[in-house]
Design goal:
The protein is of the alpha/beta class. The chain folds into two domains: 137 residues, Rossmann fold (3-Layer(aba) Sandwich); 219 residues, 4-Layer Sandwich (Phosphatase 2c, domain 1). Helix content is 36%, strand content 24%. Helix 2 packs parallel to helix 3 and helix 6 runs antiparallel to helix 7. The longest helix is centred in the middle third of the chain and has 39 residues.
Length: 370
């Protein structure tokens, strides 16, 4: 089987023209596939995965422009480089070809040396581009793996009694969570969403982990922990980068939970006794303004009570994406429905019930049991 890296498709309704070009290019070692029409070109391009297509403009059936348009509209052939072939040397036709997606334009009267040179240039460019994309994909994969390695697992801190679900829409997501021991039977939980979904957002994760370890201690209240993190991140994050977050500290000995939401959806609170409700305490974003002030709320809790921290991808995704404020009420009856589930099963069950596995956003869920 020929190496598709050097497969060319020559498309022309003239057998003479096809044979002429094939003879020139086969001498250089390319694998040549010939098509007599635009329709045949579309079939061969899908099956042969050519690196380059030489496409005649004037043909019976669909012409070269329409063939090019359909090639670029199909996910399987859109990346193929296309050089248009024509006996016409007018500016309008050239511009039309480039607008649709051609990489070059060869007049049929061009000599062999010009044809070879143009083909070589675009084959090299295509190969270089593929290699660059592969290198970028590998880099993103490594970043994604590094980011996931930073996400704490319930088995790492069993005393913290939590379970998680995490899915990044892109290779490296902007959502993340962390759990930090504060003291005996006291734990700090945080779930956050970095504004934007570019690869750069993933670099915020290790920064937050370091800051949380530094400030999630008995010497800092919850609001002081978040305020300290905000002061540092506001000075170091790139412009237009900030976090939303929900922070929760549970003291199981004292039966107390302290929490705040920083521009983030409130947590779902499912008490052992009583109906599910939201833990609401609105505050500014993190990392936007250095002098932002934060306040927290506290509540009495008992063994078996649960908190569900989540990012907006959980409730804004599904078949019909909606804003968080329009979908929040659906969580309360769902919490009652899932009340009897084991903690380890709760995050994934919420995702399934809300069809969030189809969300076009990152999704993170952190369920905690007192």
């Amino acid at each position: 089987m020929a190496d598709s890296s050097y497969t060319l498709v020559i498309v022309d309704d003239s057998a003479t023209n096809r044979t002429y070009l094939a003879h020139i290019l086969e001498e250089d070692g390319y694998h040549i596939v010939q098509a007599r029409s635009g329709e045949e070109c579309l079939e061969l391009a899908a099956s042969e995965n050519p690196i380059l297509i030489l496409l005649d403009v004037v043909m019976g059936g669909i012409d070269g422009f329409e063939t090019l348009r359909q090639l670029k509209a199909s996910g399987g052939t859109a990346r193929a480089s296309v050089i248009m072939l024509t006996s016409l040397d007018d500016q309008v036709s050239k511009l039309k070809a480039f607008e649709i997606g051609a990489v070059d334009y060869i007049v049929k009267s061009a000599n062999e040396a010009e044809v070879r040179a143009r083909v070589r240039v675009h084959v090299r460019l295509r190969i270089a581009n593929e290699e660059l994309m592969a290198a970028q994909a590998e880099s993103i994969k490594q970043i994604s793996e590094a980011q996931r390695s930073l996400l704490v697992r319930s088995a790492d801190i069993p005393a913290a009694r939590f379970a998680t679900y995490y899915r990044s829409f892109h290779e490296a997501g902007g959502d993340f969570y962390d759990v930090e021991p504060v003291a005996e039977d006291v734990f700090f939980y945080i779930i956050a969403d970095v504004a934007g979904h570019e690869v750069g957002t993933s670099y915020v994760t290790p920064a937050v982990k370091v800051l949380l370890k530094q400030f999630a201690t008995p010497a800092y209240s919850v609001e002081e922990t978040i305020a300290s993190m905000n002061g540092i991140l506001a000075r170091t994050l790139l412009e237009d980068t900030y976090l939303t977050a929900f922070a929760l500290r549970i003291n199981r000995k004292a039966g107390k939970a302290v929490f705040l939401a920083a521009g983030h959806p409130p947590a779902l609170y499912i008490p052992v006794h009583g109906e599910a409700r939201f833990a609401v305490c609105e505050n500014p974003f993190i990392g936007m303004l250095e002098d932002s002030q934060y306040r927290s709320e506290s509540m009495d809790v008992e063994q078996g009570d649960r908190f569900v921290l989540f990012t907006d991808g959980l409730v804004e995704g599904g078949d019909k994406p909606v804003a968080w404020v329009e979908s929040s009420d659906a969580l309360l009856p769902l919490a009652e429905k899932l009340r009897g589930l084991a903690l380890a099963d709760l995050p994934a069950a919420l995702v399934r019930e809300l069809n969030a596995q189809k969300a076009t956003d990152d999704v993170a869920v952190l369920a905690v049991e007192v």
